Amino acid sequence: MQLRIAKFKEEESAAVTVDWVVITAAIVGLCISVMVAVGAGTTDMSGDISGTISSQAITNRF
């Protein structure tokens, strides 16, 4: 088992695997932070739109 671990450490594919894991984790973290920021803004905007629509009066022009 230790021989397999030693071979894995020596191979360059191990370094590439670690690079891809780090890059993927960074992208996922960035996506989550963008979703949180956009979600808060969307909630605020929907509340503003709801308030504006509720305050509008319907007029009969006939």
From TrEMBL:
Superkingdom field: Bacteria
TM region positions: 20-40
Annotated keywords: Membrane, Transmembrane, Transmembrane helix
Keyword Membrane tagged: yes
The protein's name: Pilus assembly protein
Species whose genome carries this gene: Pseudohalocynthiibacter aestuariivivens
